[in-house]
Amino acid sequence: MITSPLHDAPPESDGLTDYDRAHVKLYVRLLDAAADGADWQEVAAVLFGLDPAREPERARHVYEAHLARARWMSTTGYRFLAREEQH
Q: How many Cβ atoms sit within 10 Å of the Cβ of residue 54?
């Protein structure tokens, strides 16, 4: 489970946000789970602490929104992190 405050969806931005920086490990775990074919409901419960049986729409939304941002990080956002490391 994550320790930084979690929103139902990451902020929409074409650049790296403080939220992204705080949730890099979460994004990696989401990408790993997706690559392994993990059930989204299990991922929502384990990584987000949500109960998909009680809040199915919210749990699915939180999972999908964060997975989409994780995918963005893996194709685009990582470049911003790399540039920050160089400075």
A: 8
